[in-house]
Structures are given as C-alpha cells and as structure tokens.
C-alpha cells in the first residue's frame, strides 16, 4: 500500500503566504521560505505552492521565490499559478519545482496538459480543480481562483484530464475551503474510486479526524491543508501519529 501523504499548501500573494475562507478574506500567514523549511523539518510529505493572484493579474509565478523555497527543502514541491505554456513549466522546473499545478489555463486550452506531459512527463502534471456543489446537487468546475462558474461537472473534467495526460488531481471544494468542517467526502470519493491517478483532497481540514475520514472513507491519496498548519492548530508529527494509530500507511 502506498503511504498516504500530508501536504501543506502555501498560497502566495505579493510574496507572502496568505489564507482565506471560501476563497476570500485573505490574511497574512507568514514568510513562505520559512514556512516551507519548517514543514520539511516537521515531516510534511510534499509542499504545494500556489501563486493565487497569478491568473487574475496576468503575471507569471515568481521563479525567484520558487528557487528560494526549493533550496530550503528536501521534499517534493508542486508550484502553480499563471502557468500557461511548456516554457512556463520549464522555468519552474529549472528553478527547483518537482511538479506543476495547472488550473484555468488547462480548462481553456486542454491540449496544454498533453504538451506538458509529453515534455516533462505525466508525473509532473497536477491538474488543480476548484469545484463547488450547487443547489442541484452537482459539483461544477470553477475558474480564475473560484470567480468564474462553468457548466462542466467536476468528474467529467477530471476524467478528460486523465485522458489528456494529467498525472494527479488536486481537488479543492470551495464549499469547504477554510471552514475547518471536514473535507468534501462525496466528490473526493467519486474521483478517487474512478480515476487511475492519485487524488489530493483539499478544503475543509480542521481536525485530525477529518484527515482520517478523507483517507478511510473517501480513499484520497493525499490530504492538503493550509491554515491549520500555518497557525499551528494541527502539528504534522502529531497528525501523522494519529493517522498511523488508525492503521493508515503513513511515512513517519
């Protein structure tokens, strides 16, 4: 059995780590380089670094900050935000990223998933999906940092992305983001059980039990969180010990 992964997420705005609730009301959470080094020391399995304003403000992810973060850690590191082309990916990989996360640009130009997979390998391509459950009970894809609703259902887009060459799905429930009320188990389970690639659950982790639930009930491969780690509401070593006691495969 592959070990379940715990992944802190650093949302970056203007060079600082920030955190909000339901994608708004951002507050400062610290220096990303210091946070990254601290998480690597605590035993985080990977890191995700998202420049949350890159797509909206039409600017590239800051390669220099990526380089500084990469030099402080010894664990896999995914970078996203404003990535549109294979050239963008090359810059990030050359500055120390192990994988890249692509969201709106992939939806607008699905062929870019295949282009990146063919150039860097599918294992480098993490498709980020921001999804929201609407009144009809269906989960829909949102773009531009959760600002733009589409009529595409989450599972349909995820399945297509797999066919195009995505190697991993980063699934964020907008309904649950920042609420600390638990992950979206239903949509996470649907993707985890029906796709041949790993699914990272994101949005809603507030207690250690929530992480156990998303692994045991929704069969996620990894769980991502931000504020509970940034503000030390949950410490990664204690979380991993808790999960191990529940007979989950965890790297200590």
Automatic annotation (TrEMBL):
Q: What is its EC number?
A: 4.3.2.10
Active site per the UniProt annotation: 11, 130
Instruction: Cite the entry's keywords alphabetically.
Output: Amino-acid biosynthesis, Cytoplasm, Histidine biosynthesis, Lyase
Q: Which GO terms describe its biological process?
A: L-histidine biosynthetic process
A GO cellular component entry from the record: cytoplasm
Q: Which InterPro entries match?
A: Aldolase_TIM, His_biosynth, HisF, IGPS_HisA/HisF, RibuloseP-bd_barrel
Which pathway does it operate in? Amino-acid biosynthesis; L-histidine biosynthesis; L-histidine from 5-phospho-alpha-D-ribose 1-diphosphate: step 5/9
Going by the entry's taxonomy, the superkingdom of the source organism is recorded as Bacteria
Question: Where in the cell?
Answer: Cytoplasm
Q: Does the keyword Cell division apply?
A: no
Q: Which CDD domains match?
A: HisF
Q: Looking at its record, which EC class is this enzyme?
A: lyase
Instruction: State a single Gene Ontology molecular function.
Output: lyase activity
Q: Which NCBIfam families match?
A: hisF
Functional note: IGPS catalyzes the conversion of PRFAR and glutamine to IGP, AICAR and glutamate. The HisF subunit catalyzes the cyclization activity that produces IGP and AICAR from PRFAR using the ammonia provided by the HisH subunit.
The entry assigns this protein to a family as follows: Belongs to the HisA/HisF family.
Q: Which HAMAP family match?
A: HisF
Quote the protein name from its UniProt record: Imidazole glycerol phosphate synthase subunit HisF
Task: Please give the organism.
Answer: Flavisolibacter ginsenosidimutans
């Amino acid at each position: 059995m592959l070990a379940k992964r715990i992944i802190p997420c650093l949302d970056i705005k203007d060079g600082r780590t920030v955190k909000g609730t339901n994608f708004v009301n951002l507050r400062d959470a610290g220096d990303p380089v210091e946070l990254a080094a601290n998480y690597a020391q605590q035993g985080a399995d990977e890191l995700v670094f998202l420049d949350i304003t890159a797509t909206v403000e039409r600017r590239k992810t800051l390669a220099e900050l990526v380089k500084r973060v990469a030099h402080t850690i010894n664990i896999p590191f995914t970078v996203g935000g404003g990535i549109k082309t294979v050239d963008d990916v090359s810059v990030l990989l050359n500055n120390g990223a192990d994988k890249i996360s692509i969201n709106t640009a992939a939806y607008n130009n699905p062929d870019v998933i295949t282009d990146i997979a063919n150039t860097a390998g599918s294992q480098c391509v993490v498709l980020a999906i921001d999804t929201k459950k609407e009144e009809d009970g269906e989960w829909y894809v949102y773009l531009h940092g959760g600002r733009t609703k589409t009529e595409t259902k989450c599972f349909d887009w995820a399945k297509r992305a797999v066919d195009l060459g995505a190697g991993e799905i980063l699934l964020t429930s907008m309904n649950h983001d920042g609420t600390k009320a638990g992950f979206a188990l239903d949509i996470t389970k649907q993707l985890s059980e029906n796709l041949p690639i790993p699914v990272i659950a994101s949005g809603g982790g507030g207690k250690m039990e929530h992480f156990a639930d998303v692994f045991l009930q929704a069969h996620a491969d990894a769980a991502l969180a931000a504020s509970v780690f940034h503000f030390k509401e949950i410490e990664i070593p204690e979380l991993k010990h808790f999960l191990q006691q529940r007979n989950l495969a965890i790297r200590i």
